[in-house]
């Protein structure tokens, strides 16, 4: 009777594993090309432009649509004075 219990537990375990793996979303890429190029492209000057070409990736990265980002940027851009955000070592990232 003990061997039957082990067999049914093993079967249940296999079925559970199969169900878990079959219900996972299928990916096109293991790592999206945009993310692979992040080191070479940089965080803003190049990566942001690349993200804007991929709406789904932009939304995943920024947690908002491109239109929403543009709307917010239009509202806050006049309030940003680039002189306040500079230091001795780097140049500011300007909105335009």
Task: Tell me about this structure.
- This protein has 96 residues and is mostly helical.
- It has one domain.
- Helix content is 61%, strand content 0%.
- The chain has helices at 2-22, 33-36, 38-52, 55-62, 66-76.
- The termini are far apart.
Q: Please give the alpha-carbon distance between the first and last residues.
A: 74 Å
The total of helices stands at 5
Could you tell me the mean pLDDT?
75
**Overall form:** elongated
Kindly provide the radius of gyration, computed on alpha-carbon positions and rounded to a whole number of angstroms: 24 Å
Count structural domains: 1
Largest sheet: none
Helix-residue proportion: 55-70%
Task: Bin the strand percentage.
Answer: under 5%
- H/E order of the elements? HHHHH
Structural class: mainly alpha
Care to count the β-strands? 0
Which residues form runs of ≥5 with pLDDT under 50?
none
List the helices and strands and how they pair.
Layout lengths: L1 H21 L10 H4 L1 H15 L2 H8 L3 H11 L20
